[in-house]
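Reopening this ticket.

The earlier resolution said the output was attached, but the attachment link was broken on my side. Pasting everything inline this time so it's all in one place.
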Amino acid sequence: MKKLLWIITIVLTTAGFSFAAGDQEASAESPKIIMNTFDDLWPEYMEEALIAAGLGGTVEFSTVPQNQYETNLKIQIASGEVGDLICMDAPTIAYYADMGALESLDAYWNKDDFNDLVGSAKEAVSWNGNIWAAPLNESNCVLYYNKEMFEKAGVLAVEGVENAWTLDDFLDAAKKLTVKNEKGETEVYGIMPQMFSIDQKNEGMTYTQMLWTWWFGADIISPNGKTVDGYFNSPESKSALQFYADLFNKYEVAPSTSMVNFFAGEKVAMYINGPWMTGVWKNNYPEFNDKWGAMPLPRGAAAASNSGSWNIAVTAQSENKEAAFAVLQAITGKEGAAIYCNESGNLPARKSVLDKTDMSTPPFNVIQEQLMMTSKARPVTPNYPVISEAYMNAFNAVAYGQDVDSAFKEAVQIMNDSLADK
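Inline output:
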């Protein structure tokens, strides 16, 4: 089967690395480890970590666009053509472990080193009594804003979670920040209320859209993982979907058209996303570096911020599991994590690296407070991919103008059917 991918060619080095019983040589005879990933996870920074560990050139990064990644990964697992290592978002770990696609890391990972992970990361990579993956980083989102646009519109940013905007404050600001020309065409939208424009379909959408349900005081599934009735299927949750739809269709403060580079391109005044964006702006849009600020996420009936990020796992199909784990450790270990997070602008998932990270400047000062006071994880269930897709489809659909009642009903039905099948 032809793989829908292209391979990043990496320079081969011959430095030694330490693993298990002693030093081994990274040479042309070492097994080539294949990792399934996508460009937005910065494989170039993973390679920097590998070079630092003496493992440069030992990995082929097999990439597809992020929107195609999950589908492509499932196809490759089913066909027996998946790589030695795969990247996966935290809530999908249980899904892949449950299907038997992952190698348990309990026999490989030193417990003291595992305990260097922050608590939320340890919980994210563990399921059913086993460790299944290692985190690239931890995450949390903030409300980014354009400083010049705020000043021009007379909108004042707030500091501190205790001073976070209410949803009414948020909507009022979005209205003030939306700019239309003489023809009535929108030149600047007040808010991009999710990670990407709504023509996109990937976990980054659910990751940020789920905030709206939480802010309205609802949740997604029951603690026993058997139903969404009384959780996503609740009046509060439906109200969240309606509020979100109104941002696009009633108030017209959010764009329902496909957009790229919308925040750094100054087409949007506020943007919900994570700390990794600072690395994107620093490396690709340096002229924008002094134009953005970060403030706490708004709150409704409840305050909430998201957590949980991408991880690397050894596949059950790999014929080079020890070598694959050595690569995993080189990227996600103490030195590798410091390199990866520093270069990408991500939040470290290791306590030892976090202790050395400057958390005094935006967005990290906001994130540090939110992680302690408002952070919330997406539900952990083997059914998560179905839950996530149904959720995202409902939010995208109402943004495009589908009536809330039908989109909500359809999502509830799909979610409950998937949980009943389990």
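Reporter confirms the inline version is readable. Residues 1-27 have pLDDT under 50 and may be disordered. The CA atoms of residues 390 and 414 lie 7 Å apart.
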